[in-house]
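I hope you will forgive my troubling you with a question about protein structure. The record follows directly beneath this note:
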Amino acid sequence: MDEFQIETAQNVGINQNVAGIGDRLLAYLIDTIIIFLYALGSILLLGALDLDMGDAWAIYLLVNLPAFLYYVLLETFWDGKTVGKSIMKTRVVKLDGSKPSFANYFVRWIIRVIDVVMTFGGAATLTILIKGNGQRIGDIAAGTTVISEQQTVSIKDTILKEIPLDYVPTYSQVTVLNDKDIQMVKNLYDEAVRKGNHNIIVNLHYRLIKVMAVEPKEKPIDFVSKVIKDYNYYTQNM
C-alpha cells in the first residue's frame, strides 16, 4: 500500500495510506450497482403506476435526482464516503488531511464526467498511477485524494515498549496520559527519530512537561523515550 505525507497545521508530517486501485475500482463497482438498482427500481415503479408519458418523464427525472447526485451528496454528508467507499474502508480527504468542503466534493464530482464516465475510468486510472498519491483528474482540480482507512498494525505500531525486568520508572505522572495519548506520542517520536526531525521531539518534550507537570533533567529525546517506557511499566504492572 503506497503512502504519501501530509503536513498538518502544526507542521507535523503524517503518513497517509493511499487507497489502492483495486479498492477504488471495487468501491466504484459497488456504487454503480447501487445507482443502477435505484434507477431500475424507479423505472419499474413508475411503469406500474401507469402515468401519462409527459408526466412520467418529469417524475422520473425528479425521482432519480438522488442517483444523479449520489457521489456529491453522500461524500458531502458522510465524511467523504459513499456506500462503496465505506465497505472498502476508503475516504476522500484534502491533501493536508483535513475534511474537504462542499466545493471540493462538487469539483471532483463534476470532473468525474471526464475522467471516469467519458473514458470508462481510463483517464482516472492512468492519472492515479502517474501521480502516485491517489489523485485522479477530479482530485487534482479539487485538491483532494482518496485514502485507505484499513489498519495494518504490527507489534511495533502499538504502545508496547520492551523494558528490562529490573526497570525503575522515574515519572509516575505518566498515568495522567491514556493509551491514545501515548500511542500518538510514540508514533510521532518513532517517526521523528527515524527521520532525524529534532523539532518534533522538542515539541513533544515541552508538551509532555506541561501535561505531566514535571521538570525533567534528561535531554528531550531521552525524556520522551523515558515517558513511553514509564507508561508501559505502570500500565503493565497495574
Remarks:
- Residues 121 and 151 are 27 Å apart (CA to CA).
- Residues 155-236 form one domain.
